[in-house]
Amino acid sequence: MQVWVTPILSPESIRKGQWQKEQPQKTYLRRVKQVINKGDESYPLMDINSPPPRTTLFPTKEEIRDFVEETLDGKVRIHTARTRQTKDFVWTHISCDIESAGTHIICIGLTQLSLPSGEIGRTICVWFRRRGGSCWWDNDSDSLQHIVGSLFVLFRDPNVGWVFHNGVTFDVPILEEIGFEIEGELLDTLVLQHTAYSEMQKGLAFCATLWLWSANWKVAIKEEEDEKG
């Protein structure tokens, strides 16, 4: 049996200055109402232990090339599970997140988005370094150049918009420092969160939990580490 739990603020906590938590409380209570009215299947929690559908965690250079070409080629035909229809649309944006050690990029995560239709496409994770700092592509300099070239074309296309979280001050400066040029529209969900709710937290885990029905993976990882000792 699945048990849903949501925190409730006491009036006393709000009186003592925790009023900035009132908006998240309203969101979570509306979520409870949705679950009661529609059942558990209305908005299932994301499984943070498994990759999202249509995700390639360790793509080959050919799969990276195909991802870039599919994103840039224009119309895409896909059968959507949400609407159960086959439809044509254009990937208008890419959601992007990088993991780095200083200015050395470990990997770049990319997800195709169509903001007008709300559809989510494929996700790939482009690796550059292994644990310890060695090159992911070993001595295959041709593959590395091919991948960097494909990404350069993608980043530089003015018709592709980009969605980051804290990208303005973190991801984009690092990408530009190593030579990539981002020409398309830039959306930063951290800035959007601050613009809409300046009193609320703005971290990625908080925003994902609040708006996307995601479990807080940072808490889950900490609990797992505590259990292991």
Write the layout of secondary structure elements.
Layout: H1 11-15, H2 22-38, E1 55-56, H3 61-72, E2 75-80, E3 85-90, E4 93-101, E5 104-114, E6 119-127, H4 141-156, E7 161-164, H5 167-177, E8 186-188, H6 189-196, H7 204-212, H8 217-228
What does this structure look like?
With 229 residues, the protein is an alpha/beta fold. It has a domain at 55-193: 2-Layer Sandwich (Nucleotidyltransferase, domain 5). The chain is built from eight helices and eight strands, in the order H-H-E-H-E-E-E-E-E-H-E-H-E-H-H-H. It has a six-stranded mixed β-sheet. Helix 3 (61-72) runs parallel beside helix 4. The two termini are 29 Å apart.
Keywords:
Nucleotidyltransferase, domain 5, 22% strand, alpha/beta, 6-stranded mixed beta sheet, two-stranded antiparallel ribbon, 39% helix, 229 residues, elongated
User: CA-to-CA gap between the ends?
Assistant: 29 Å
The count of helical stretches stands at: 8
Strand content: 15-25%
Backbone structural class: alpha/beta
Q: Specify the biggest β-sheet.
A: 6 strands, mixed
Mean pLDDT: 83
Query: Strand order within the widest sheet?
Result: 1-6-5-4-7-8
Taken from the alpha-carbon principal axes, the silhouette is elongated
C-alpha-based Rg, rounded: 20 Å
CATH architecture of the domain at 55-193: 2-Layer Sandwich
